[in-house]
From TrEMBL:
Domain of life: Eukaryota
Region described as Disordered: 1-23
Name of the encoding gene: pn3-21
SUPFAM superfamilies listed in its UniProt record: NAD(P)-binding Rossmann-fold domains
Protein name: Short-chain dehydrogenase
Species assigned in the record: Chaetomium globosum (Soil fungus)
Lineage: Eukaryota, Fungi, Dikarya, Ascomycota, Pezizomycotina
One MF term in the entry's GO annotations: oxidoreductase activity
Pfam families per the UniProt record, alphabetical: adh_short
PANTHER family per record: PHOSPHATIDYLINOSITOL-GLYCAN BIOSYNTHESIS CLASS F PROTEIN-RELATED, SHORT-CHAIN DEHYDROGENASE_REDUCTASE PHMF
InterPro entries, per the entry: NAD(P)-bd_dom_sf, SDR_fam
Record's keyword terms, sorted: Oxidoreductase
């Protein structure tokens, strides 16, 4: 008998997703006309963490987890004030008890905040069944984080990678204690497949192309960050796979909600928002529709491990993800920075607490 709370993933050759002969804009219209299924699986008995939970698809995903019965929903938000407001809005819609939602503040602009956040999560709960790492940032101009790294790189890649690694011990303990496989899901984008080699050839590496002010481009850099995110996920999927002959101890996957009407571009000008409004009205899903993809990704079975989930199917990665040297170099560049901040990273990756 199949588990009613596990979604078995199809792959794109089995059907699903836009026809391969459609162009970019036609594919986007297809996505609007064919929203993903709204998951109905139960998260009763589970503890769920969502970062970027106060707005957009993160908020809508949090609403769904609460409505689907999560015992404890942890909201990863930038401040306690935002968390309390988000909690109230969720409870107004789901009518759950107040103690089913907890708040943990995190500012992904700094590594220190990430470390404190994970420590808070570990105090809030002895188990973590789902970690949906969704927080992200789109920037119209180069901006340095307190660490000195470009802000989008810091938020979307470096801090998110550190958070994922620091959460691994709690996810592993949950797997051991419950006999279930926790989920670690990253929000990503099919846009990673649009990256061209010439975008970073002059810089010498993907990392340098997004890290250095002289090489930075707002549109290209965001997509390259998503490609680096694929490299991180590929490396961590090997760490969480366990022994080669066994299913993964933690199911790790990527989820692409497609273009959605959110405030991801909140730092862009008013003029940019006015210009983009008609485009989004035609080519973007709603935040609620996008959240369906994120929530269903965290209910997939082990066949989704290391997979890319979008349009209710496991989709092929972009061409450059198949370049193992490129992916390994990108992972190495990220890992060295994260290890420099936290010496425990290597021990955790090797299976330690």
């Amino acid at each position: 008998m199949s588990d009613p709370n596990i979604i078995t993933a199809r792959t794109s050759p089995e059907g699903g997703g836009p026809p391969p002969d459609l162009g970019q804009y036609a594919s986007m219209r297809w996505a609007v006309k064919h929203p993903p299924a709204d998951p109905t699986v139960s998260f009763a008995g589970k503890t769920v963490l969502v970062t970027g939970a106060n707005t957009g698809i993160g908020f809508e995903a949090a609403v769904k987890y609460s409505a689907l019965g999560a015992d404890l929903l942890i909201l990863g938000v930038r401040s306690a004030e935002k968390g309390e407001d988000t909690k109230k809005r969720i409870l107004d819609r789901t009518h759950r008890q107040s103690d089913t939602i907890a708040i943990a503040a995190v500012d992904l602009a700094t590594f220190a905040s990430v470390r404190d956040f994970v420590a808070t999560v570990e105090k809030l709960t002895p188990r973590l069944d789902v970690a949906l790492l969704n927080a992200g940032l789109g920037n119209p101009k180069f901006e340095a984080a307190p660490s000195g790294w470009e802000m989008g790189l810091q938020v979307n890649v470096l801090s998110t990678t550190l958070m994922a690694i620091l959460l691994l011990p709690l996810l592993r303990r949950t797997a051991s204690a419950t006999g279930n496989r926790p989920h670690l899901t990253f929000t990503n984008s099919h846009g990673h497949g649009m990256v061209k080699r010439e975008w970073f050839a002059k810089s010498g590496s993907l990392f340098k192309a997004v890290a250095e002010r002289d090489n930075w481009n707002p549109d290209k850099s965001y997509l390259m960050l998503k490609l680096i995110g694929c490299a991180v996920a590929e490396a961590l999927s090997a760490v969480t796979r366990g022994k080669a002959s066994n299913p993964p101890e933690i199911i790790l996957n990527l989820a692409c909600p497609a273009l959605c009407k959110t405030d991801l571009g909140r730092k862009f000008s008013v003029a940019s928002h006015i210009f983009m409004a008609p485009f989004l009205a035609i080519f973007a899903r709603t935040a609620e529709q996008g959240a369906r993809t994120l929530v269903s990704a965290t209910a997939l079975g082990p066949e989704s491990h290391a997979g890319f989930w979008t349009h209710d199917v496991l989709y092929p990665y972009g061409e450059l993800v198949n370049d193992k040297d490129l992916m390994q170099q990108a992972w190495h560049d990220v890992l060295e920075i994260v290890k420099e901040d936290n010496p425990d990273v290597q021990r955790i990756l090797e299976g330690g607490e």
